[in-house]
Each structure stands twice: as structure tokens, then as C-alpha cells.
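--- STAGE predict ---
source: upstream dedup step, 1 unique chain passed
mode: sequence only
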Amino acid sequence: MQIVKFTADRSVDMAVPKHSIPIQHYLRQPHRLVRSLVDSNRIKQVSDDEFCLTMRTLSFFGFDLQPTVFLRVWTEADGTVRIASTNCEIRGIDYINQRFSLELVGKLSPYEQQGQTYLSGRADLQVQVALPPPLSFTPKAIVESAGNSLLKSILSAFKQRLMHQLLADYVAWANTGTDSDYSRSILNGKPMGEI
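--- STAGE serialize ---
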């Protein structure tokens, strides 16, 4: 049985549009954050901080695979958002599903520099799988190269949505809030959206 490991990572650093309501309040709402990164019809909230993501079907050396990933998303006291996979299954091929592991960890942190707020983040994705018999005869270097490229394309798609959709959603969310709502949330110690 030939076991291969695929890895990819992506970093992001972007300026946040200025608004009277700081982005830290937006980041305290994991459900908004997740829905801005993924099409809402592919994500299901399982608990306050856990989500089930059904990814699009991926083609890999003639195999059609549909990963379903369970993600835990939480915010730390300093506003840093963390994401970690808790479970994964592959729909389509039982052989691969039983010999497959996925680990995703990510973080997104706000920081200030010369009066401007930025978001800095990084995601690391690692997949380990035992190749099914037809694929196990393909040179390992070729399979690993193709697998690494596939993971990079997945993370690149998330990065693009993060840079555009998340900031657009933050601005839309902040524009629907009022100064009195924001002040009340500060006084009550609650993030916006939970009032």
C-alpha cells in the first residue's frame, strides 16, 4: 500500500476599509465569517462553533471525489479567528475514504499600523492518503506534485473569497448597524449580532 502526503499553505495580508464599527466585532461571529468564505448551500452549522462543509467534486487522476470537512471556528480574546478541521470523509470511493486523513489549520488576526487596520492570516492544509491500486503504479513524485497543486488551488480559491467577499460582507454588516446598537453592544459586553 503506497501512502502519499500532499501539503499546501497560503498567507494573506490585507487592509480593512475604515468604518465606525471595528472589524473585531464582525470577527466574533464565526457563522458570518464562514458563510462569507463558502457558498451558503455548501455549509451547514452543526453547533455554535462547528460547521460541516461539503466541497465541490474534485477530479484527481480519473477519480471523482467529494470531501466533506467538519470545521471548528472560534475567536480568541484579541480578535484572532482560528479554524481547525475536526473530521473529514470522502464521498465517492470507500477505499479512499477509509485510508484518508485531512488536517486544516488557519488563523486570521486583525492588527493596527499607522491608524490603518489590517487582517493577516495563514492556512495550512495537509492530506494523507493510501493510493488505490490503479494509482499506486503511478510514480509517487507525479502523484504528489498533482496533489500539492490541487490543494494549492483549493486554498487559493478560499484566499480570493476572503479578500473580496469577507470585506464586502463586513462593510454591508457594519452599514446595517447603528451607532446606538454598537454602543449598546459595548456596554453589554456582547458582540454585534447577538443583541
